[in-house]
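ok here's the first one, seq then struct tokens
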Amino acid sequence: DKDKDSLREKYEALQVELMAVQLKYQREVERLERENKELRKTLLLKAQTSPTAKMRKVKKSLIDMYSEVLDELCDYDSSYDTQDHLPRVVVVGDQSSGKTSVLEMIAQARIFPRGAGEMMTRAPVMVTLSEGPYHIAQFKDSTREFDLTNEEDLSELRMEVELRMRNSVSGGRTVSHDVISMTVRGPGLQRMVLVDLPGIISTVTTDMASNTREAIQAISEQHMSNPNAIILCVQDGSVDAERSNVTQLAATMDPSGKRTIFVLTKVDLAEQNLANPDRIKKILSGRLFPMKALGYFAVVTGRGNSNETIADIRDYEEQFFTNSKLFRSGGVVSSHQCTTRNLSFAVSECFWKMVRDTVEQQADAFKATRFNLETEWKNNFPRMRELDRDELFEKARGEVLDEVVNMSLVSPKYWEDALSKKLWDKTNTYVFENIYLPAAQSDNSGTFNTIADIKLKQWADMGLPRKCVEVGWETLQEEFRKLMDKSKTSRDHDDIFDNLKAAVVDEAIKRHKWEDKASDVLRVIQLNALEDRSVSDKQQWDAACKFLEESVKEKMVANEATLKEMIGPSSSEQWLYWRTPTDEQRRRAAVRSELDKLLKATYNHKNTLTFDEVTTTRKNVQTAGYDVDNEFIRQTWHPVYRRHFLRKSLAKAYDSRKSFYAYHQGLEGELGVDCNDIVLFWRIQQMIKITANALRQQVMNREARRMEREIKAVLEECGCDRERKATLLVGRRVQLAEELKRVRQIQEKLEEFIHALNNEK
């Protein structure tokens, strides 16, 4: 027993001596490293500020080149497809196990937000560690550099990380698959790429989405399933081993342990809790958990105080392993398995070994992918250039703007003809029903002109200018759409742009508003035009006659269609086409027959029926065997009288063709000629002509340019909105061009990286 006690004392003394020697040499190595850091920093700064530095292209470090490849892959394949088998260091662990603190110790900066027991890592964070003269951090999509030696910058960086994580979760989710990418540079940092994943949980709390546990599991498996990813499995040493979730997951994803490094954190708390040395020894020798690993490490990541600096934590860690009875005696752990510094060296070494062993295979895989995509393009689109979505958008932008230029080439006559036609189409019903028909009920010329003047002025004061502006807006819209549709018939038309062009035009038209003062300008010129009743020459008279005749004929066609629908097929149509009128149509036909007799007896009948006339008509129809009410008779009267009135108007128009001399000499009364209808329609025709001219000037001088500005603004917005472009430019051709572009970029960056890797000593 005395011999055994003596041997144990010697063993412990040797163990203490060995630890002291190792710490002595470790301090010496750290001193030399600090001197080396200062020298490297001086050299890097000198290289950056030398006169020739601006004249030559800055050579990227290996890790920066590798990180660019990974960033390209993140954008190209956000679902982490099996094609992406490039190595990363995937940091996994249970929630609050200290995995983020381990990553911060490796990065030598407290760059992540902290929370007391709250889930803080809500999305994967890819951190690229690289050497540089200054200790700085930068996001992939930002130019700002955060000074990691400045506490204010560190605080802003943590807030930015937290903000990006919260922005990445939407739709009620708690965690996200979207990768946040950042680079940390500094003197003496081990070059590698780490991905910090959300901590694995056992229970979903009430403030989490119901599928949070499964979502975290899926994210972890997604990143760990990469056969070349190094799994940094972080286990909390202060809790019972049986409560571990991460070790079982690591054992499932890497059964052989060829790419797993195990890290036991919070071993200082384990000692405080009087942990069994044999149990910790089993953990660090790989005999307790059902998993295998390349190496096992014990680390201390601070006292749990968020205000501690990296230097404070490193000193505390060194002090703990120097004085710890648990780790100093009993051979619990070897000295090279302690401290985050040794862990960082080991992880970096494994990472670069995996990179050198696998990167060539990945380059070959992308070569094969590129060949397949290029073959598909040659077979399906042999005579087309490979234009990605951005290039296609620029081409479509040019075509749309070309059509805007073509709109400025439309002749003034074409604009005026289109506007005149549209104006009359929009106003003819109002003219006939509210102006011409009431004025025509008068018994003499004076009353006709008085009613017409009053009605025309009311029209010009109230709704006419606004209606004309609407006509101008609609005509501008229709003509631009016609130009766009006309371009589809050209030989060079590419239908892949149709959705984009239609969306841009629709949005621009929706935004375009006519100038507010346009209505006021039109009101003045329309009032002046409508007040003029002097037809100066025979040519204008003939044009007014033609205008009246054509307008009346159009109305007659429309009225006949309405009347035909009311009374049903004629006798000949019933025999020839086997059509049978309905009961209502038979009653309408009987009423129409009686009303026609009434109008024939009273040629200059007013546009309304008296009560006696309605009663007489109803009794006559009842005698014919049809029972109708007064309202039914008045409904039928409307189109019947309109037909009678239009026929009278057309006859007047024919008679007035040769009445210009009588009108010009003021002999209408003496010769029994009625020219009021022609003069009224001449006034309306002149108003339409002057309005069309004014609208044409507004279109060509102002509104077309304002429309062009709206189109350019919409195109600019679409150009900056990738999601919108992705919905408007679709199809296999676009998708294939996009994939080809990305695969070429990735392959080129991979080849550049491999070349630099092979040249590195």
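and now the second one, same deal
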Amino acid sequence: MSWLCKLRRSQRKHEDDDPLCSTCSTLDLHAILKDGIPREHAVPLGHLTDILNKHDQCGLCRLMATLIRRLWQLDKHPGVDLGGITCAMYAEACGTVLDNTSPKDICHQLYIQWSTRPRDVYIAMSAAQSPLTLEIRLLEEDASKVGRTKELHGRRVDQIVDISMLKKWIRTCENKHREKCKTVWWRGDDVLPSTVRVVDVARMAIVPAPPTCRYVALSYVWGGPGDGYWTTQANLAQRSIPGGLDASVMPGTISDTIQLVRQLGERYLWIDALCIVQDDPDDKEVQICAMELIYGSSAFTIIAVGCTSARDPLPGIRPGTRDPKQQIAKIQGLHLAIPLPVPNETIASSVWNERGWTFQEVMLSQRRIFFTAYQVYFECTKDVWSEDIVAEPINHTWTAHPLKGHGMSQLTLTSAPVYWMSDTYLDRYMTVAREYTQRKLTVESDIVDAVAALLTALRKGFKVDDGFRFGMPLRGLERSLLWQPTANAPNSRRVPANEMRVPWPSWSWAAWRGAAKYASIGVFVDIQMGTEGAGAFVEQSLVEQWYIVNEDGQPVHQYVPRQPGELSEDINRKTYVRPKGDIDPQQLITGNAPLLPGTLIFRTSYSRFDVTKADDVAGAGAGIVANHAIYSILSDTPQPSTLVGRIILPCSTHSPT
């Protein structure tokens, strides 16, 4: 132990207790943390407004007020009415292990209960991905005072990251989780192409990745051009010799990552700006095609969440690069702390989380180390650990702890899907499209490239032979066409780059700015069935043949696997008859109206209907997207104004139309 740590520990031993208000002074925290208090017997603490007002008079009220202000987003929503809200405290086990087949509590954690929570607060918390529970932890240094071990207790976070702790996390995952985290389930025996380069941090050179080499990857935000440090055709030869990579020209995120990789005892590092020749389109194309293997094969990925551009330092690697802002109070001889923001809470508000390319980088990585402004998190397929809680197993292994469920989650599933889960392929694709399209791209023409590796992994994992066109899967094409823009989408077309010969067609979400979403099949079920779409599924494909026009203006037949099965028998329903017969592409080509590349062609039927606002539907406005309403679909057959269905449309739609 260093002299500085000994000095700090000595200072803590002699520090005075924080003052307590008359309410908090009646609490016996030693007994509460040792034995717990059931939720139904929570101890009253008074009105929330009183707790907030006493933040500078009482140590425990200060912790509670700070926690509630942060998680409830009160500083961003100062007008929220908190009158009448009361609080109470209880203590429950936050980790359980099996000891000789009997459950055993690891520790108790303090929870703050509220009588009610304003709706505006709940909406703000959901948007910020804040935890819904209010927790206060006892620090590990005082666990023995209440008869507990250090596990799952809070931990102090310093300005500099403890490298030995990071090594322990990596070693624990590799030794205990083994195959579950060693390889990604969607990849077979593929190895890195010989064209992939890595940074040799020992020799400070860019070298071809040695076969089956162990390396680390970096995910970060560029934040603008980097002509001064990018690898180009002009400097590649110089950077390929030992010592040829000049660390002095590297921006903070990259130089700090190189230092970190050395400290972790690793040798090879993959960074896109250095390992891809930025002014060589052919090299870029080759490397982009290998992106799924690059991130999927890395030993772990360092993710610079706390950096807004490559110029920012990696938080916690050098003095003065982060401030944990950890709130700690000494109460009745016990050091209590409120948790630092959990991973998904910190990530949700970061610039890194807004960028398009970083989505597939994190989703393809089986082990991630997130560097944020407050602390470092480790996430793998099996677990999530952080600096501010002793969540990594020491003497016990548990199935749950406070960080579980607060990570970035995995690409699709934590293991390979079994045969009966093949239908979830489209569901996973739709999730990827929804998450990805919420992000931003500096170069609009990257819209498909920046997610191509993720789509490749998805296709490999579900053993789907059919590929993608303009980001849309050929398998299940009739369902993937049903994407919709979100309510706040700008509804404007993306402008392709000059070198792009074929713009994205309008039937792909890639052609439009803003986020896209997919609705559940259940929304297409008649609302009067009363089942809300429960059990809805696609029974059969209704299109025989699909064509897409190529760059030469010629329709090309696409192999689109059809949904198997026949329509179920129903004597009260007329079966839809698919239009059949081959399509003669030549009939579609006329001199006056040439077919645009990307045009989607198929044979179908159409009908005209009247729509009118469905005033007869009880609760028609409930749960509907803002500025939308339910309309009735009316047919003239078999008699005028026959109700044949419902549809959700913008309120601006004239009624009837």
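notes on #2: Confidence is low (pLDDT under 50) at residues 1-7, 619-623. Residues 606-656 form one domain.
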